[in-house]
Amino acid sequence: MMHDMSKLELLKNEIKRFITFFLSELKPKGKVITPFNVIAAIIILVGTVLIVIRFTFGLSSITNLNQEFPWGIWIGFDVVTGVAFAGGAYVITFMVYILRLEKYHPIVRITVLNGFLAYVFYAGALLLDLGRPWNVINPIIGNSFGVSSVMFLVAWHFMLYMLAEFIEFSPAIAEWIGWKRIRKILGSLTLAAVIFGITLSTLHQSGLGALFLMAKSKIHPLWYSEFIPILFFVSSIFAGLSMVILEGSISQKVFKHRMSAKHIVSHDDIVLGLAKICAGAIFVYLFLKLLVFIHDNNWRHINTTWGYWFLIEVGVFVLLPLQLYSNAVKNKNIAVVKAASILTLIGILLNRLNTSVIAFNWQVAERYFPTWMEITVTLTVVLVEILVLRWLVNRLPILSDPPLWAQRKKKDPIQQIFLVKETVEESEKNKEMEEWKVSSM
Predict the structure, then answer these.
(1) What DSSP state is assigned to residue 132?
(2) CB 3.0 to 4.6 Å from 263: which of 222, 252, 259, 406, for a disulfide?
(3) How confident is the model at residue 68, as a pLDDT?
(4) Domain map of the chain by residue range?
(5) What is the DSSP secondary-structure string of 185-229?
(6) pLDDT tens-digit readout, 293-325
């Protein structure tokens, strides 16, 4: 009885300590009144009001969505494009945990956190676009599972991948709070979560493309192909890594005070390594794009307005970034890598919007244009995500080194040399001793 009471008392003390600690962490770490914070606060306030209006009076109250264009900027940007931008998480974890490329280890946590937040907020944004958002739970609880729909597959992939990314990131939370035992348990789950997450990512990145296979008659032939799932998957590789490069460059300025020395020193080498991978992935994507173009005999569409628009997308935002990435790696030019990453991200945005919005129902005379309210709500989602990311980075060991008790045990290389030398010397002494014993007998 006394033993149970002591356990209960320890639990109460731990809960009390956690609450005290968490409340202390809520205090701002820097200036509250800044230009960014003020602008963000105004947009978020207006966006929150618009979201309330949307759920009160329906989609038509703030959007231009209709029967011809049921998917607008909330799906085209927040989901279809946003998921591609979050692709860096599965690529980086594959490189670090599966291929054992340790030089990319300093950016694992920030990349996984970015991916996790992107999926959480974009899944939330998905609710905005649903006419009956309460039905989003159906694929989970079994009330009309909808197993014949690609959306069933994407919904489960989203949910399970968010869980996998949370497990991957959770050791940082345990280190922040100081839960040593829980940190050990969570750390042991990392590799399994990574393998599971990579599998899910390869499926749902292509699964988003598979959604559009059902809209052959609605998407312009220059953007429709039975190979859309493969193109979506390949493009998510260089889209995600380009986002990692851009975010890493911004973090170098905004969060430099939180970065470990190893992170700062290795930044340029990491960026050039990612640029090299981007160049290779873009080359594969461009090759597939041209292959699809020739296979579908789309030459007849080139000398049209849509054809010129297609050439701009491929020439300016695929071929040019490929050239820039290749030259930047060859000349080790970080500034050019950053420029290439921006062009690449614009190109991905353009391609995904062309597929889901701009070139969708291309033969209809009346086009869809998002209202200022739709754009404001999208900015609200993005800004809240950025603010949550900033709050976490300023508190958790994400860019900084983990506490000493949580760091991986690594022997110093010099100590390792001396250890090997001592082992060899001891072995030789033992051998001499054995020979002496034999000779003395």
Answers:
(1) S
(2) 259
(3) 82
(4) 42-62+371-396
(5) HHHHHHHHHHHHHHHHHHHHHHHHHHGGGGGTTTB-TTT--TTHH
(6) 999 899 999 999 999 999 999 999 999 999 999
